[in-house]
Amino acid sequence: MATVAHTVASKWTAAVQSTANNMDAVDAVRAFFLFATCTTLSVSGIPYLRARFVDYGPRATDSSRSASTIAAPRSPLTRFIDYLAAWRVPHSYFIHFYVLSVLSSIFWATQLLSRGPAFRVIAARVNEEHRSKSMSLNQVWLCWALMAIQGARRLYECIATAKQSSSQMWFVHWFLGLAFYIAMTLAIWIEGTGTLLARDITLDHLRVTNVPTPRTLLCLPLFLLASGLQHDCHHYLASLKKYTLPAHPLFLSVICPHYTAECVIYLALALLAAPAGESINKTVLSGLFFVAVNLGITAASSKRWYMQKFGEENVRNRWRMIPFLY
Question: Does the global pTM surpass 0.70?
Fold first, then answer.
């Protein structure tokens, strides 16, 4: 029996290793985003787990207190789950996301320009189908620049608006955020691998010499507008002396307009990064799914917290994140 179990385990391990070795890099990045999205949805769908693992900040404090109040006598499983939930990091660790995003953007710029070892490893795992439908060099550098700008702006906002806070988040939330920015700074150029391999790249390619396409003329202003609105939201929230019901015009109909802007930013990037013959970049779009789900869950939690804190009548008619939809 032990021999049979060992044989099955060996075959399963070999199959997993073979799949990992043969998996296309583009598909792997997409799979990470979709796996993270499904995992977040699964955990958030169970209030008992959501209160412990998903909610953070003042929402987590209220949710955890409520969950502990109504909980049944603590079983071994409950004690184990509470033990895991106690592994938390300061909410200020959010700044690590944007430090990593900026550093990753710089890293990939040097790798793409020099065809460094990390680029070669990734490129070798991109199959011919994805190489044949590739982003142009202009698209690669434009989207890289916009992602770098997004990371740098958010880093600046964290530094400029940082406040002392006792809020915490589950360490997996922090780890998942780090993984997201590593994956997104890769996703922003990986579907341009075919072009990057076919042409030598120099700093001259960073110059904008081509006439912008209609897609660029539409999506670039969309990115900049969403970035500006998000910055305005963050600046306003940072100016509040304490937790109060936001009165800024952008918050009058939407609970979390800064989350709406975040989704629009990644939607614009997904459209700008569309490979030849495609209407959208599916890898960046997969990342957008994760962003929308993650922020959508937090927006719903924020609305519930606002109702408890300021009265249901004051926020009942405000959309959570997407006007007329959610």
Answer: yes
